[in-house]
Amino acid sequence: MLTILPHHFAIITTDQQQEGFKLEVYLDNNATTRVDDEVLDAMRLIYIYDYGNPNSLHRKGNDAAQHMEDSRRILAKLLGVKSKEIFFTSGATESINWVMRSVARLASEKRNKLIIGAVEHKAVLKTAHDIAKIHNLDIAILPVDEKGVYLLDELEKKLDETVLLVALMSANNEVGTLQPVEEISKLVRSKAPRAFLLVDAVQSFGKSKMDLEAWNPDFLVLSAHKFHGPKGIGLLYAREGRIPFPLITGGGQERGFRAGTQNVPGIVGMAKAAELAVKDLEKNIEKMRKFQKLIAKKVETLGGVVITPLNNSLPNTITVSFPGILGHHLLNALSLEKIYVSTHSACSSSESTSHVLEAMGIKGKIALGAIRISTSRMTTEEEISFFLETLEKVLKFLGFDR
Ligand code: PLP
Questions:
Q1: Which atom of ligand 1 is nearest to the CA of 173?
Q2: Mean pLDDT across 38-47
Q3: Is the CATH number 3.40.1670.10 carried by domain 38-278?
Q4: Known catalytic residue: 347?
Q5: Which of 68, 163, 164, 306 is the most exposed place for a label (fewest CB within 10 A)?
């Protein structure tokens, strides 16, 4: 029988501390988050009672379909869009692939330019290069300034009637920089009215305010595991009539646009997680911002460099560097203390340099030393104090010399 050991000792007694138990501090919430207990409870009901196939015609199927459609309505309402504009997928990577690969099929000789941001997630960058080869598209890369913000004057220069798709993120996963999505959208609509606009909002949801009316995208993607929901479920918002073709064909689910039996427990979990994510958003932002400032202060006192532009960032993300110490050495030393941070995007952590830092003009020792600390609404003051104390100890141990 499979035995699952509990690894999370968030609440430990003084006796246990004396016996050598260590607080586990998870500070890699941009990679993924812990599932909220209320989300698990909601999913459990589906797994054990309403587990029918939502496409079956009997009552058990109808009950599952009802949960799925209720969840679609909840998510649509939270985003301020129509239920029929929400499609369930396996996550943001699939949603991004779906949009990019199906829009690419509309390319013609006169409409063949893709504009993608230099600091996008690999899901956008790699897919762009792949479809460019398949459909003979031109890729225009939008640069950023030293804070990681997209350059609007450069965007304006690239926008013309040949643009098929603009794919940009609302907040960066590696450094937390917020993008001026509303201004970007206005520029796209005025200079390239036929272009599709895809917004990767994966890192924004539950951490900063999102205004879909002002952003006015054709497509927007979310992934539940980034906001205390389950892994393997995400959504695509596609404005009515905009998504041209399915990516996955088969049984005709999701109104013929995304085949495969829907992940109903995941969908219900995502809707619950979304409700919880927006419930106390302002209070949570304030708490995470407070932690971000405490970390920044300590890093500066210790002689490190704060890379994240704190006045224009997600409240939960702070990327810092201790030049001369390699980021992955610091990550490993902290990991031994049960403190979990990241060097850069978890999906590409084997690569040595970050394309995001490179695009921001950050090179050499600062880039090699970068670590990302990402909190969540579940992070506690106790965890942050323990992290800051341990960081100082670990840096001394590694011989950091400011
Ligand atoms: N976009 C951004 C900005 C991300 O941070 C991530 C995940 O790190 C993704 C897309 C891909 O999400 P998923 O791996 O859940 O498909």
A1: 5
A2: 98
A3: no
A4: yes
A5: 306
